[in-house]
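Thread: tRNA dihydrouridine synthase, structure

OP (GT): Posting the sequence first so everyone is looking at the same thing. Length is 139 residues per the record. Can we get the structure tokens written out before standup tomorrow? I want them in the notebook alongside the other entries.
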Amino acid sequence: MGIDWLTIHGRTRHQKSTEPVDYTAIKLVKESLSIPVLANGGIFTLDDADRMYNETNVSGVMSARGLLQNPALFAGYKHTPLQCVEKYINLALAYGTPTAIIHHHLMYMMESLMSNVERKTFNCLTSIPAILDHMAYYY
């Protein structure tokens, strides 16, 4: 039967996320296959996505950590809009998301807006009410 599409990450499992993505390898895989190929790795901005797309000719681009930091990345936002943060909180609470996961995702989304002091304070919060109070006070 075969496969319908392939996703490729631009690093080996032994490489750190700080190492550059191998565009040449991704391009070689894309040129070798007749099915759609999606690429991932090092996508934090729309410019990163455009570069991946243009340099490798892949069918599509994905992001992991970049979308954790900014779920609105592909909508063209450079930073997570506060409306997005509010929507995430409401959905996370409605679906019963564990506190640790809510905290983790909010830390990613808010990191660029927080000072070092605020980041340290936020990292000490261990309950939903404390997190909500912090967000209401600062944002």
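GT: Both are above now. Quick notes for whoever picks this up: The chain has a mean pLDDT of 94. The longest helix spans residues 82-94.
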